[in-house]
Amino acid sequence: MSDFVTLKSNPDFRRLYNRGKAITNPALVVYYSKNRAGICRIGITTSKKIGNAVERNRSRRVLKEAFRSVCPSIKPEYDIVLVARSKTKYVKSTRLAEIMNEIFANEGMLVTEGEE
Where are the domains of the chain? Predict the structure, then answer.
């Protein structure tokens, strides 16, 4: 799977915040839950605590690029919300991709060799 669908509706975000599982890291917070759509859906949020618009947009771009590199190895049955934290704007996308790989592997969200 090389592409993903973005979450845009407020009920989807609220469902993940309330019913999904959360994993925290100094650079980001990941909320996830299984879906019935059979595709990987992602949402990215940044609050005003991150900084001004330039810093929030940079955080979003970095998170999106890091997720783009990790996305092919994720099982296509999850809704994921990535929440930027104050350290996100200082971290490179390659380091964020490593963090995401680590988190997703620990949670069993990555496709193993024989599963595809």
Answer: 5-106
